[in-house]
Structure formats: structure tokens, C-alpha cells
């Protein structure tokens, strides 16, 4: 059931209770968690925070806590968890579709989701009338209905519409507390959806334009220089690639990843947009990069040193110089709308910087720490009091982005991307440099996005340009398992609808492949290496 009065039907219910807050391991969920934590701290609501990596973790944690606030709605929770009748679930989630049973349960399921989103939920009569008609047809034909029967009609079409939209947490809680409490986390949540390719670029532009109106109303009112540069002052600015007029603040934002915390050269080499535009995995691409740097007229010493160490005169005109040269090299979209947050004089971060830092901390494989430890560190980096941890996350993100760029270049140059008919397929072998990084869903998602774009830029096969990509990477060598991820075709305009979740389920069922569908994102599964051949054959047959 959709919650219509957020205060009466949700907050007033939990404010006097002890809440178990279950959060999935992605940046958008972390941001929603920070919002809830801030609200609970204000009203002294007792809560327990429990990170859950998948459905198995969720089931185990539910048996321990019973009462919970959860952010997963794309399955029938009552059937999955078998709760007691007095258990109530409040769900805030960006995964689509929302399970229709959760939508029409009026007692135990409460959905904190805007009803004017493009949910496409079929009406109650359409769903259950179709089911009744199917049962009658089954009885007439002498076939007994079982749990594996296919949903029909509008419900099946709805179930196949798997796509993700931004979290509307900024709207849900605007009536509870001052909106300035949640502006920064909402900005980061929206940016995460775009960085990890869960929403198309135009959707991102529309969403941040809405957030810009919200943010501009709640920045500090006092614009004098002393307050705007105080170490205790946090300011969020909306930028469209033009220098900001606020004193001593360089507001230059380009489609270059982490460039304000890196050297300009390394940022260009490791950004998906510029790397694919130049085709840096090729000799000609490297020549184009040198021509681009020469066209800008910037000294190589300046380009190769850390951004903060560049001459101020160069930084002041950097946006105009890069944009002018980028247009000559067919990179007309080098600018992108974005947000920046300022902490005093020195600390300035773009929203995408925070997303990359938090994701790197969340999936850190450099130390033998538990997923729960990484979760807490990623959550901490979203707080303004933990800037040291945020900088640590940025350093980890740099290493991850370098590994992604090197892996993409290797896959393209060695022709590891194969056309399987209805989709492209790439398998990373054990022993590939930094392959351990790609055993994590967010890192593998970024790699897939980068690799597919690079392949589309390099191939001459027009048909292959419109195919989706399935990628597999080693997960557990001892158990002989791989992580498999599917992403939709490369597109800047259409919705990022991903149909691989249902396809993976069907392929595994038809071939008895040993798979584990434990991730909240159904397009990510674990697969036994021995079953890879028959699983792929089934996918080819299913999607042809």
C-alpha cells in the first residue's frame, strides 16, 4: 500500500518505536539512510542499523530483529520472510518494479514511494482477474496450477519493466523537517543513479534541475565573504560548467572524473567520456590525446601535476580552454550539470567525487575487512565531520578507475568481447590484473558501462552497437563461482530498462544451472563456472 500522508502513516508510527533499519550496499541507499538517521537523531528515535548485502542476509537479520524498515520492494516480502501478522514493513526503494503484492497489501506493507512516479502498476482487477481467468483455463484444459506458473497479461508486462529511477527522499521528508537537512544527501543519491548508469542522461538533467530549486532555497542566507568561507559553513552550489561568482571558490566542473583531486592528464585518461572519444587504447588515440593537449596550449608540467598545484591563472581559464579544444575534437558534451559542496576554504567536492569515494570505500578489497566494516566507512564519508575518510575514498577511487581503464584497454585490444547473437559477452579470466576489484557489483557495473561504450566506439559492426552486454568475473576461486552482470545497450536517450533479471532466472531454471540470485539488483547473479556454457546457450535461445 502506498503511503499518502508521510507524517501520519509513517513517521508518527515509528517515532515512538525502536526501528531496525536495513540498508542495501549502494550509494543511493546510503544517502537515504543518512536522511533517516538525521531525522531519528532529531527526535531521539531509537534504531538499529543493519547492512544487508542480499536476500540471505535480509532473511537472517529479520529472524533476529523482526521489526524493520527496509529498502527492498521488488519481491513479495510476506512470502519471502514469512513474518508474523503484527509485523509492519515500511519500504523506501528505487528498484523497479515494485512487487504488485506489496502494492495491494493494506495491512503489513507501507510503500514510501511517490505515486506520480512512472510506476506503471496495473490495476487490482487487471492483475487478479487475469489470474482467475488463467486458473479457469487451466482447469478446462486439465492442467493443475502450480507455483511456477507464469504471471499473465498486464502483470507479466509490468514485471518485465525493470528499471530504476532516482530516490525521491527529498520529497518524502520535506514535510517532516527543514529541507536543508537532506539536500546534500539527495544530491549525492541522484548523482549516484547517473554515475552508475541507472538513469539516462536526460533524466539526470531533469532531476537535478528540480533539486537545484530546492538547494538554492536552503543555502546560507548570508552571502558575505566571512561566513561563506567559514570552516563551519557548508554550501551547496549548482553549476553548469561556468566559474562561480562566490569569492575564492573555483567552480569549474567538467566531464572529467575526480579532476580536482587528480592531475588533469590522469583524469582525461581515466574518464570514460574522454577515453572513449579519443579511443585511448589505440596508438591513434594516444596521438589524438597529445594533439588535444597541444591544442589547449597548456604546459605539460601543469597538466601532469595535481590540480590544486596548477597556476591560478591557468585554472581561472581552464573551462574555456578545455571546452574550445573539446569542440574541435567532437566532444561537445564535455560540460555537464552538477553540484558542488564547499567546506570552508580548502575542501570542495563535486557530487560525483563523493559518489566515487563512497563506492570505493563500500567495495574496498585492499584490506581484509568485513562488508559491514566497509559499509560503515562508506556511510561515515558522507558526513561533513569525516573529511579524512572522504579523501581516503577518493584515493581508493583513483586506483579503481585506473584498473577499469587498463582492463577496458586490454579487453578491446585482445578482442575479449564476443558477439553471442542477441547480446555481447565478455569473461575476465583469473589472473587478470586487479580482477579482485570486479568481484563487486558496483565496480563491475562501472567496468561494464565503460567497456560497452568503448566497444561501441571502436567496432564497425552496426548491429553490435545496439546489443546489451553480459560480463562475468571470478568471484570465489575455491568454490568455482563467477559473478555475472547484464546491462542494457548503450544509449543516451532511452530509459535504462534492464530485462536480464528475468532472463537469468529463466535460463537457470531451464538448464538447472547452479546460480544464486541473492542480490537486490536482479541483473547480478552468482554462477558455477562449470555451468557457464549451458547457461549462456539457454540465454542465447531465450533472447533470440
Automatic annotation (TrEMBL):
Location within or outside the cell: Nucleus
One GO term (biological process): mitotic DNA replication preinitiation complex assembly
Keywords: Cell cycle, DNA replication, Nucleus
InterPro entries, per database record: CDC45 (IPR003874)
Compositionally biased spans, kind Acidic residues: 131-143
Signal peptide: none
GO CC entries: DNA replication preinitiation complex
Keyword Chloroplast part of the UniProt annotation: no
MF terms in GO: chromatin binding; DNA replication origin binding; single-stranded DNA binding
Domain of life according to the entry: Eukaryota
Record region (Disordered): 131-154
Record-stated family: Belongs to the CDC45 family.
Protein name per its UniProtKB record: CDC45 cell division cycle 45 homolog (S. cerevisiae)
Source species: Cyprinus carpio (Common carp)
Taxonomic lineage: Eukaryota, Metazoa, Chordata, Craniata, Vertebrata
Amino acid at each position: 500500500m502506498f503511503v499518502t500522508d508521510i507524517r501520519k502513516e509513517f513517521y508518527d508510527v515509528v517515532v515512538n518505536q525502536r526501528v531496525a533499519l536495513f540498508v542495501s550496499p549502494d550509494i543511493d541507499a546510503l544517502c537515504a539512510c543518512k536522511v533517516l538517521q538525521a531525522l531519528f537523531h532529531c527526535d531521539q528515535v531509537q534504531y538499529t542499523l543493519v547492512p544487508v548485502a542480499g536476500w540471505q542476509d535480509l532473511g537472517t537479520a529479520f529472524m533476529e530483529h523482526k521489526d524493520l524498515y527496509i529498502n527492498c520492494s521488488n519481491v513479495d516480502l510476506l512470502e519471502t520472510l514469512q513474518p508474523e501478522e503484527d509485523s509492519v514493513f515500511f519500504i523506501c526503494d528505487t528498484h523497479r518494479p515494485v512487487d504488485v503484492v506489496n502494492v495491494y497489501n493494506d495491512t503489513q506493507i507501507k510503500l514510501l514511494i511517490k505515486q506520480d512516479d512512472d510506476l506503471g502498476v496495473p490495476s487490482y482487477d487487471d492483475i487478479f482477474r487475469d489470474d482467475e481467468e488463467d486458473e479457469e483455463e487451466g482447469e478446462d484444459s486439465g492442467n493443475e496450477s502450480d507455483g511456477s506458473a507464469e504471471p499473465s497479461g498486464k502483470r507479466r508486462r509490468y514485471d518485465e519493466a525493470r528499471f530504476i529511477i532516482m530516490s525521491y527522499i527529498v520529497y518524502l521528508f520535506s514535510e517532516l523537517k527543514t529541507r536543508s537537512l537532506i539536500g546534500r544527501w539527495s544530491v549525492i543519491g541522484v548523482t549516484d543513479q547517473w554515475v552508475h548508469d541507472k538513469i539516462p542522461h536526460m533524466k539526470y538533467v531533469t532531476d537535478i534541475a528540480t533539486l537545484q530549486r530546492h538547494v538554492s532555497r536552503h543555502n546560507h542566507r548570508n552571502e558575505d565573504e566571512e561566513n561563506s568561507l567559514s570552516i563551519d559553513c557548508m554550501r551547496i552550489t549548482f553549476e553548469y560548467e561556468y566559474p562561480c561568482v562566490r569569492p575564492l571558490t573555483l567552480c569549474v566542473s567538467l566531464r572529467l572524473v575526480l579532476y580536482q583531486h587528480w592531475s588533469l592528464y590522469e583524469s582525461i585518461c581515466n574518464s570514460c567520456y574522454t577515453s572513449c572519444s579519443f579511443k585511448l587504447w589505440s596508438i591513434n588515440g594516444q596521438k589524438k590525446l597529445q594533439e588535444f593537449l597541444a591544442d589547449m596550449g597548456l604546459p605539460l608540467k601543469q597538466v601532469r601535476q595535481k590540480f590544486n598545484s596548477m597556476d591560478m591563472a591557468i585554472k581561472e581559464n581552464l573551462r574555456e580552454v578545455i571546452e574550445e579544444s573539446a569542440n574541435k575534437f567532437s566532444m561537445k558534451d564535455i560540460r555537464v550539470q552538477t553540484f558542488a559542496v564547499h567546506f570552508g576554504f580548502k575542501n570542495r567536492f563535486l557530487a560525483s567525487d563523493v559518489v566515487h569515494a563512497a563506492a570505493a570505500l563500500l567495495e574496498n578489497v585492499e584490506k581484509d575487512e568485513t562488508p559491514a566494516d566497509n559499509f560503515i566507512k562508506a556511510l561515515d564519508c558522507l558526513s561533513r565531520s569525516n573529511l579524512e575518510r572522504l579523501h581516503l575514498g577518493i584515493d581508493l577511487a583513483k586506483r579503481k578507475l585506473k584498473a577499469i581503464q587498463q582492463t577496458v584497454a586490454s579487453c578491446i585490444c585482445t578482442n575479449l568481447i564476443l558477439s553471442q547473437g542477441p547480446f555481447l559477452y565478455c569473461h575476465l579470466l583469473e589472473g587478470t590484473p586487479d580482477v579482485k576489484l570486479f568481484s563487486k557489483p558496483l565496480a563491475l557495473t562501472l567496468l561494464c558501462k565503460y567497456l560497452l561504450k568503448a566497444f561501441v566506439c571502436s567496432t564497425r559492426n552496426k548491429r553490435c552497437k545496439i546489443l546489451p552486454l553480459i560480463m562475468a568475473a571470478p568471484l570465489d576461486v575455491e568454490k568455482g563461482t563467477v559473478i555475472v552482470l547484464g546491462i542494457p545497450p548503450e544509449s543516451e536517450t532511452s530509459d535504462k530498462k534492464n530485462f536480464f533479471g528475468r532472463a537469468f532466472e529463466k535460463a537457470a531454471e531451464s538448464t538447472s544451472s547452479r546460480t544464486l540470485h541473492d542480490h537486490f539488483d536482479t541483473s547480478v547473479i552468482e554462477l558455477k563456472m562449470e555451468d557457464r556454457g549451458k547457461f549462456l546457450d539457454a540465454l542465447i535461445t531465450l533472447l533470440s
